[in-house]
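Ticket #4471: structure export looks truncated?
Reporter: QA, pipeline team
Priority: medium

Steps to reproduce: submit the single chain below to the structure queue and open the exported record.
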Amino acid sequence: MPRHRVAVIGAGAAGLVVLRHLTDPDLQDSFDPVAFEQTGQVGGTWVYTDDVGIDSTTGLRVHSSMYRHLRVNIPKEV
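Actual output as written to the record:
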């Protein structure tokens, strides 16, 4: 059976779930996944940073839906 190369764009919540499923031992011989993340860490929109504007290392716009005093109504484990 041929292996399929799969690109996962973004390592946020959805991207991490996809990567987890593609690396499942039952599928290990089927897929060769690679994740591409714009920032230096996983978490996507849920990563908090004080940075605003343009990222000095990547030159790309800083994007985060988090802010310092955000209160959410979901468990932190989710």
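Status: closed, not a bug. The export was complete when the record was re-opened. Leaving a note from the reviewer for reference: Residues 4-46 form one domain.
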